[in-house]
Amino acid sequence: MVDLKSQYEHIKPEIDQAIQSVIDSTAFINGPSVRQFQESLEKYLGVKHVIPCGNGTDALQVAMMALGIKPGDEVITSDFTFIATAEVIALLGFTPVVVDVDPDTFNLDPEAVRKAITPKTKAIVPVHLFGQCADMETLMSIAHEHKLYVVEDACQAIGADYIFKDGSRKKAGTIGDVGCTSFFPSKNLGCYGDGGAMYTNDDALAAKLRSVANHGMVVRYYHDMVGVNSRLDSIQAAILNVKLQRLDDYSEARRKAANWYDKAFENHPKLKIPVRSPDSTHVFHQYTLVTNNIDRNGLQAFLAEKNIPAMIYYPVPLHMQKAYRDERYKEGDFPVTEHLCNTVISLPMHTELDEEQLEYITAAVLEYVNR
Ligand SMILES: *Cc1c(COP(=O)(O)O)cnc(C)c1O
To answer: Which CATH class, in words, describes the domain spanning 247-369?
Structure first.
């Protein structure tokens, strides 16, 4: 699905030098590369504070701890997402409330959010799935109206622009109270291990996020609240400093591959290409087709025989996952998500796809669906 090896080969001297300089300095934890990355990412995103942390799941957890949400409070999120989004809500003793998504963008349906709000609701967690922003303008107005926090799960959308109705733009993750991202190797800005970050424009909240991620500490060895240990290590930050400079080029390479796929599959009666939202640029963390009337698992197996990986993101809606099943939900409650889980398939998507590969992949997909 990704080709991290070829990508590394293009930037090898810079990456190797960045890693070596951390080893030479032995500043493995909180070294200068971490500070440098924080500042570069703040500038890139146009956000006041970036707080690096251990991974994207930690970012979501620390964000929710810092906002002071209490056990029993309800947090609304998408039924169609990676498990981490709901996991931290459950882990902290909050109640995850899932709602259905828009069939075109795969992102939170604002009307479904509105209907799910109760007096116990404290926060909304929009997920910018597959690289495209959720309808943030509507979600933010719902949040203001009901005094709810908004934590953006921007793990799949670093670099995407949300476009407001007046034409102004903000980066994914910088619109709500806190934005969360992941630098997992296969993410759009991936390091060579685990990494993550939180973003906010609120000074007091930034201090709290920093403190929660550092054992609840403000003054050394004085712990004002219960925290966790979640850090981005210096070697990962040094790698990210090299790759951040190329993030826009990487997004462009992904869009080029997506355009190629679009052209091959558009107007096909059995394949629905990704719908580009007018409110967001798309950074194509995934290129995901919705199939119509074909044996999707057969397609996946056919592609595998030709050495083409294809993945099902995600095969099971959150409300049908064993760990999250409860009496509140049953099969049929979220028809859009359930339909997507049964019909989507994601094709290889990364920064190194060349025309020969794209031609090979599209020909194979068409061979199967046209037979
Ligand atoms: C990857 C991902 C996460 C978790 O990030 P990790 O760094 O793997 O912990 C959370 N939410 C979404 C939507 C993701 O894609």
So the answer is: alpha beta
